[in-house]
Design brief:
single chain; globular
Length: 93
């Protein structure tokens, strides 16, 4: 179990590094990254519902989903609204 957690942690660190590179270098993909980050907790929750794992307490990731998911939803909405506002501006002459 410890080995699996360590491997999962390593992949999460790698994903975090890739996300930061995408945020900094490829700003056009920010909305896609935010959407993927928003969908991931729901997929993890569905997998946990289908194949539950018995634990002694609440995992930190599950406890923080209540904070992270609404924040990601708001940030994604702001990013989408900002993109719509920029795209609908009248052309300059």
């Amino acid at each position: 179990m410890i080995a699996i957690s360590g491997q999962w942690g390593g992949s999460q660190l790698l994903m975090a590094a890739l996300f930061w590179i995408l945020f900094v270098r490829h700003r056009g993909l920010v909305r896609l990254i935010l959407a993927a980050c928003l969908v991931e907790p729901f997929m993890r929750g569905l997998a946990g519902h289908v194949k539950p794992i018995e634990t002694l307490g609440t995992a930190p990731g599950a406890a923080l989903d209540w904070v992270v998911v609404p924040v990601l939803a708001v940030v994604l909405c702001l990013a989408l609204c900002r993109a719509d506002a920029q795209g609908s501006s009248p052309p300059r002459s």
